[in-house]
Automatic annotation (TrEMBL):
It is an enzyme of class 2 (transferase). PROSITE patterns: PEP_ENZYMES_2, PEP_ENZYMES_PHOS_SITE. Residues 77-316, 327-383 form the Pyruvate phosphate dikinase AMP/ATP-binding domain. It comes from Sphingomonas panacis. It comes from the Bacteria. The active site is at H480 (tele-phosphohistidine intermediate), C856 (proton donor). Its cofactor is Mg(2+). Residues 543-894 form the PEP-utilising enzyme C-terminal domain. SUPFAM superfamilies: Glutathione synthetase ATP-binding domain-like (SSF56059), Phosphoenolpyruvate/pyruvate domain (SSF51621), Phosphohistidine domain (SSF52009). It holds the Pfam family PEP-utilizers_C. GO terms for molecular function: ATP binding; kinase activity; metal ion binding; pyruvate, phosphate dikinase activity. Its EC number is 2.7.9.1. Residues 448-528 form the PEP-utilising enzyme mobile domain. This is Pyruvate, phosphate dikinase.
Amino acid sequence: MATILADTGISTDQRYVYRFGGGVSDGGKGDRNLLGGKGANLAEMASIGLPVPPGFTISTEMCTRYYDEGGRFPDSLRDEVAAGIAHIEGVTGKMFGDKADPLLVSVRSGARASMPGMMDTVLNLGLNDQTVEGLAATSGDARFAWDSYRRFIQMYSDVVLELDHGAFEEALEIAKEDNGYFLDTDLTADDLRKLVAEYKALVEQQWGKPFPQDVHDQLWGAVGAVFGSWQSERAKVYRRLNDIPAAWGTAVNIQAMVFGNMGDTSATGVAFTRDPAKGDRAYYGEFLINAQGEDVVAGIRTPQYLTKAAKDAAAAKPASMEEAMPETFTELAKVFDLLETHYRDMQDIEFTVQQGKLWMLQTRSGKRTAKAALKIAVEMAEEGLITREEAIARVEPQALDQLLHPTLDPKAVRDVLTKGLPASPGAASGAAVFDSDTAEKRAAAGDSVILIRVETSPEDIHGMHAAKGILTARGGMTSHAAVVARGMGRPCVSGAGSISIDIKARVMRVGGREIAEGDIVTIDGTTGEVMAGAVPTVQPELSGDFGTLMGWADEVRRLKVRANAETPLDAKTAREFGAEGIGLCRTEHMFFDAERITNVRQMILAEDEAGRRAALAKLLPEQRSDFVQLFEVMAGLPVTIRLLDPPLHEFLPHEEAEFAEVASAAGVDIDTLKRRAAELHEFNPMLGHRGCRLGVTYPEIYEMQARAIFEAAIEVAEKSGAAPIPEVMIPLVGTRRELELMKIVVDQAAQAVFADKGRTIEYLVGTMIELPRAALMAGEIAEVGEFFSFGTNDLTQTTLGVSRDDAARFLGVYVEKGIYAKDPFVSLDVEGVGQLIELAAERGRKTRAGIKLGICGEHGGDPASIAFCEQTGLDYVSASPYRVPIARLAAAQAALAARG
């Protein structure tokens, strides 16, 4: 049914344009999905009386339709946009395309999830050879007008016409060199007029047509370019890294221009209501006098500090905004406080000052480091601004990974090359690389790399993700590199002005020294230091805000969190991170130990049971010692131990020299050894003689392991007074009978040990559900099994028929093409594998009401998979030690989400 747009008289089947400013707000902060984050917040700021230049938003729904219809706009949209332009004209008193007093607009993207720097923007749109003269006359500043036209041609040619922006940069640099200038602001009106002529000549040369003079053609070209940038390579990479669905689309925001480049009473800036790196409650940001917004975020000029305190702390010389524009700064500070209270979160704000008048161009919840996120969430809860439950929900679980790894040892010797701005905290060492493609290739080969650039651009997103840290010669604390690095959790040092980068020679020069590509460098994003060589690290301190928030999380979560661990060090690390037991101890890792591999190989090479038992007798005390060490760390807690799982051939040698060594140690000839290795060879060993199939054919292996478990558990119980609770897990079960046979072996070993020691302990025997058949037959298997642990790594392999070792070659394409929403080995395939887990849980509980259920694959540390486990009612998840805090927080968030 057709509707009539308010105040416009336009009839349309579907509305796509929403106005804001001048006393009108067609939307608000609740309309993020429709208007994108930027559009929703512009409408909201306008509605609460903040100074927002008037404009309108073309909705995300139009973006979807634009792609569905082959990059075309419906006629109804042209009518709506015309009404939107009329709204801006009515508020400003200027006319779009008017030669005497032209209205200029900005055209910006705005997805519902913040994607800083990933999509396109066009400023100063509406300038042409006639309107530039009108702008010069009405502003009384010809230099400003021609500077704006120069910027517009350069930006439009890059974003819309897709011409070589390097040619325009080169022309600008030549113009400065020819006149002996250092800064862009040194160029006069006449210089800029000549530069515009050069720019237009470049356009005609590269594009084959003159620069577009019709302002309406300019507008639709820019709108199409912004929608088009949603599918740019950099945007796709960013969405993939941040789990943003391609179906969301972007909105387009068209807004009256305000100018920060109208002389020394004008400025532009980016600010945060709290420190996004550390979380301190202090205004944080930068500004530039006589500049436009892109100058700040692009890192083209090194900006000045907002506050005097920040300027003094950095020992910077240029005046802060608090000093240079005290009245405007006071007004801005009031806006900061209003916005933070209104949105109840730390805000990232863009503003412009035009000849002393403050204008707000954007607000959004600011990207922050994990340390800052914790501090801000805890302090806001303690201030009463948000609840504890909201504080728990505010911290991204994956971001905790930034806090859980070592930092530079403060006592270590540092060979400091230079110092830049501490743009994103943390530290990293790696090989110096000077372009993103090289960073990605070397990282894929297993190298740690530091990406070093003059300045990063959105096209560097893949290299930034691949790198362990980022170093730039230019840019401030709010530059593209800084914002994206903080969002990714990468250490970053920006604005290291003393370094020079020779991209052709692949070398960085600083203070008379050279760092060639491949040389190791270290950066400290907390201090801004850049060092030659690697610097030792220390373990993190996990107290303070971290401890407070994790305590709150533990109060609300239902799921228990265990760790995957088989060494005492891993177990201790897991306990320090809050693990409530071990959910997976892989005993084969113990068999691979260099000192006992010979006995393992003797067992494999034995021709009969007696020979195997003789070798296993040598392994028993070593296996028992392994379990004693684990149980001592986990005294009183459950420890799930998976009996031997991999095929036996994995323990045998592969190289000629190894064969000779093993034959000598085992007392057999090489030919016998090779024959036995050939007998054990399997075409598809992951689906072959492994798991419980080994126990069925060689029950003495599982018997030895079970005996070692129970002897160790009793020893620790007698020492500590707190018995561990062994949960003996039989791997790769597909039938009830397999588990029944193996449970008999384990129970007999337990009774024998209990009789020997004169003491019993509590234990369980269960299985790992990692085959589709096991999930389907869970009701029968639960007649024998006392717990199920879903081995989601193998269950994903066997359900999808995809090898996780080989899948990396093609799964990225599958995700890109929408076949899978995410890599199913990273985040659980809820539709397929998840359905099997739900079915197994339901059938297992029907047979055995109190059966214990958990997962122990890598998915146990993935927040989305943990949310599924909460919904399915599992009892616990088990994750690698460093992901235990991530799992604790994700489990709390899942519990809160389940409450509604």
